[in-house]
Amino acid sequence: MKEKEILLRLVEAEIGRLPLDDTEPQGLYAPIRYILEDGGKRIRPLLCLMGADVYGGEPEKALPAAVAVEVFHNFTLLHDDIMDKAELRRGRPAVHLKWGESGAILSGDAMLILAYRILQNGTPVYGAGKLPGLLEVFNRAAMEVCQGQQYDMDFETCDRPVTRDEYIGMIRLKTSVLLAAALEMGAVVGGASDAERRSLYDFGVNLGLAFQIQDDLLDTYGDAETFGKKIGGDIAAGKKTFLHIAAMEKASAPQRDAILAPGDIGEKLPRVRAVYDALGVREAAETAIAEYFGLALEALRRAHPQAGRLAVLEEYAYSLMKRNK
Amino acid sequence: MKEKEILLRLVEAEIGRLPLDDTEPQGLYAPIRYILEDGGKRIRPLLCLMGADVYGGEPEKALPAAVAVEVFHNFTLLHDDIMDKAELRRGRPAVHLKWGESGAILSGDAMLILAYRILQNGTPVYGAGKLPGLLEVFNRAAMEVCQGQQYDMDFETCDRPVTRDEYIGMIRLKTSVLLAAALEMGAVVGGASDAERRSLYDFGVNLGLAFQIQDDLLDTYGDAETFGKKIGGDIAAGKKTFLHIAAMEKASAPQRDAILAPGDIGEKLPRVRAVYDALGVREAAETAIAEYFGLALEALRRAHPQAGRLAVLEEYAYSLMKRNK
């Protein structure tokens, strides 16, 4: 079994041990079980365990931190789905459709508290001395994720064009810092130095940027069968993605109109994609992904004097960028 | 100046120092400032400071814990107002009406994280050794408040009658445990023993129960002018308060109908109040308040060997029960 598979089993087992099944009231805990059990890729907890492993900390010792980050991440998905009025999450009805909006708000709140509880209850596992450092990393990232979500909402409703820098700043907060925090928390458990922690954090931030821009790219240019969800969702919703912003920077007036005009997805997707193609937007995205991924690998190499210790993380980072879904 | 006034100034000053004014994005932080600046009674932070004072801890040392609890409490109000579709909070438009529901959900999330950040940032004030204990008390209470809110929603929609025990269990979670936790966190900062902490916690739980039942009573029997809000709100909304539940336990079939039949507030309030009067519901509530307040004072006397140290808390507890708003 590959290293990643072993760590994934640890994560799933630990999530399975959360006391959600028979804790009352079930109206509060059933939605939490529901969103956690259909897991997604578990990227953040895996990064956390790998972060600990780099510095020779047993990955098991980072499990509470890893699961706390995963619970937090799923909390953000739950609340984001309410805000976005999303109907599906990982192919199943979103929590707010199944349990109502009030139930979804409250279960999300309980998840956020649960994340802190898991972190605190893990003290015997990673030692009380590590708690303040873990909390500091977690708290800062948690607040930044909220800032990122606010910028995302602000951008969607503002009239002026969003710049590429603003977009990068937004996805840095909304997506990247939590990947980076997961890694740094692993490094804290593993006993990394401050400089090593920072390098691993930088690796996470840049990996996250590459990952999010790739997500934007796949949504427009992915293969429908392997991507697993409908292509063109962002274009249909008029989302201000990296591709949209890069296109609007260079578009002529008629091209802008072609991007902005409404239409059903069957007509709008090829129309907008044709403009993107004409403007070289796909290549711009691929260049940005390659650049951020390059920065990520550079930061990773600084994260530990022994290159060998970084192998699992590096391989996992490559696998994330080779994904087609 | 009375002791309580001095502590209140400390609390207001500390809340005023929260970095909310110029932190971006303002869409996230302006609602937090808005709900915190129009403060209410600041009961929880005052109890926290008084709890520290009982054990000779300087109240200033408990300020981060006190403010964390107050920020958490206001977070629950913000999200509860969305769930209840409440339009006013302390006489002003609720956050979700002013900033929209998505903004209110997200700002509430950020407040919850802010509460943890304040608690963590206070480490230099109360000493790192106190953090795990404070977090444990805070986390348990925070989760219980969510459980209480879930039971409250469950009770409002369930068809069967809610028992008095179930109601007490619900308000214990929804209201009392946070008062108790505020006191216990103060005791932790003050250096109380485990037994003293528990006694002060019990004082808070029982005080909270007395306070909430008094709230139910004032909503139906209070004086409109001094109460500061409309009398009969609970009856108009058909809320399952202590009075409602006590009445339904004893009511005849026609009396039940009289309680449950809809109607505008001008007609429904006197009609339901007449049934309550006939069933002695007011007296039942007053008895319950007196009993819980008595239990609170008993627990308070166990909380410290020196009776004199408890004077400020005892006086404040009496002032809370003598309120008419």
From TrEMBL, chains A, B:
InterPro entries: Isoprenoid_synthase_dom_sf (IPR008949), Polyprenyl_synt (IPR000092), Polyprenyl_synt_CS (IPR033749). Keywords: Magnesium, Metal-binding, Transferase. Its cofactor is Mg(2+). The keyword Manganese does not apply. One of its GO terms (biological process) is isoprenoid biosynthetic process. GO terms for molecular function: (2E,6E)-farnesyl diphosphate synthase activity; metal ion binding. Gene3D superfamilies: Farnesyl Diphosphate Synthase. It comes from the Bacteria. Its EC number is 2.5.1.10. Pfam families: polyprenyl_synt. Belongs to the FPP/GGPP synthase family. This is Farnesyl diphosphate synthase.
